[in-house]
User: What shape does this take?
Amino acid sequence: MSSKRKRTIFDELKVLLGSRTRADEMELQLYGKDSSVLSGVPSTVCFPVNVEEVQGIVSICNRFQRPFIARGSGTGLAGGAVPIGNPVIISTAKMNKVLEIDLEDRIAWVEPGVLNLDLSKALSEFGFHFAPDPSSQQVCSIGGNVANNSGGPHCLAYGVTTSHVLAAEVVLPNAEVVTLGGIDPEPKGYDLRGLFIGSEGTMGIATKVAVRLTPNPPDVRTLLLDFADVSDGALAVSAIINAGIIPAALEMMDHNAIGIVEAFVHAGYPVEAAAVLLVELDGLSGGVEAAVQTINDVAKIHNAGSVRVAKDETERALLWKGRKNAFGAVARIKPDYYLHDTVVPRSKLVEVLNQVYQIADKYELIAINVFHAGDGNLHPILAYDAREPGILERVHSAGDEIIKASMEAGGVLSGEHGIGLEKRDFMHLLFSAHDMFTQDLVREAFDPQGLANPMKVLPSGSRCSDSFKQNLPEGVWV
Amino acid sequence: MNLGTIERQEFAESVAGSDLVTVVGGKTQWDVGGTIDPNARVISAPVGIYDYTPSEMTLRCGAGTTVGEIQDTLGEHAQMLPVNAERGSTIGGILAVGRSGIRRLRYGAVRDYLLESWHADHEGKLVKSGGPTIKNVSGYDLCRLLVGSLGTLGFLAEVTVRSLPIPPCSRWMTGVCDPFDLQSKLYRPSCILWNGNQVWVLLEGHPVDVEREANITGLSECSGPPVLPSAGRLSLRPKLLRELPQMYKQDWLAEIGVGLVHLSEPIKNDQSSLSAVTVMRDIKIRLDPTGRLNPGREVF
Assistant: This one.
């Protein structure tokens, strides 16, 4: 070959980043997946360390008209980071510094690769934390939280990521660097910050994020209520809200979940119960005391077997360990699981839960429910063994029916995992063609060429520049 | 058919056409963003509460519904919308202007209270965004784009907002102290106002806690905050408020911890550079290609 051969995109990226540009087969395979069941194949994986390098990568992608995907920790469950169209993966893993903690403004500037829990740990000595706390908080990144507008158990009282991110430095799909939002309360212009959060990497790449610091509550009480009937548990959820209490967290686990979790963490969960509610109350002690009393009253009215109040931080941590590790604990019964995420009105929890059980029975699957009951955010887990022939089809069919049942109950497609690839073709259940067309118009204002994480969020056809659909990898379920 | 379906459809149809058009609410913040082109046809959004389930903490209503009516309805179930707007303001107007009330320090920005919206676009077609549940990440968050857009991208027809319980006890305290020091001593006060000398603080929550926090402040109880100066408005990062006494000779009242300053005289338009203006302009052109929605209003 002539030494003057035309430089490839890989060559260009290599010049920019050296050994931080990679395309080994192992690496490409690894970055072909996120935490969903979907997979694809990237062309290259890049590990930039600063905004200039991210800008450089995006410029090169523009020149070669190659799609790119920003990737945090790969913990996304909706296929948002699964590569489509032979893209360049831009990993934010090496951009992992807390840049500035400003206690006067009560904000911190962090790089996107900072892990959610690491941020809260860095803030703890000052008496603050970052409120969104997804179950994956030990490993998920702030950039990923921004992309998915992530939630977590404590978002019932504190709100999801969008309420806690004030500004972001973003490399737009045309490689321009901009700041969206601001540290001041009323930044000029349209709220592009709000639009960007939850856009799943389709509007650019955040390279620096200003997060709000939430003061640690002076008093925290964690309660465990058990019920012989799931309906009673669900009614208790509404009763608590009706009593004027917004707990910091209000989580439910069903019988199947309790058994699995207890065998794993030995927290003394009542394994015979049909459901438990994990309730956390926080704030100043007067309000917390009063709320504990109210919850005891609600528990009596709704036939709770007992109310256990964690007596110290160790017991509280143990109860939460059960909740936060429930998904991993599923491995005790089946090697694989499919985790769903829909939201229904609180008043429809019982109805939809019963449907979930019926759907699971119909497809001969085990359904395990561990979810954010306070905000109606269901997380049915379908446990299975991928080695069983034909099982994935059954899991998918059951999943489709769960999504449809949630929509029919007046719910939404996703509470916190996002749409990604997994649910884009369900968007029509929630939105009209014109709704999606309008969303697409807005996305195109950021990315007219369709290079930023193409084929995600909106179904094919909503977007004129969907030029990568021929490249759907095999096995992608869309 | 759901309540409100016909109303929002009729409203959208009333937007259709090729003429200039503007939507009017309670006119309580009518001057924000510049003067509306006098040739614009004036319409108003549907009025009425369509759906309210207290245990869901959500309320669905026409965008032309007044805050007074919403607060009264919520109040019957000891709930509220944490805005401090005049009773005659419409919810659509408050969201389109996007200014939060003085309790933002505790309750956050008004944009966080809009869950789902139906808006009429430039062709008079309805567009739904968001979802009716308090948690939702389905699709792009056009709700937040619409909040603060002064109706330049579409006219709100119907909204679903989230409500909160009314705190059992509320007390305003006032006196002379360092407001920044005060903020660091209190756990999530609802509002701290400062005029360079005197401080007003709103404490809300359980009576026992409010009493305890009131004692921490060392201030005396008062009936409420002073009237906010409304001729000028300044948005600063919170710590810059310390410098206000050196910056302004006129009367002002600042929201400590938030960064808003209410001024007694207008201030010159700030010339600060605006990032991502190309994207903003492009969004406006895409969503209102002929510029017929709220002509005269400037967001950036």
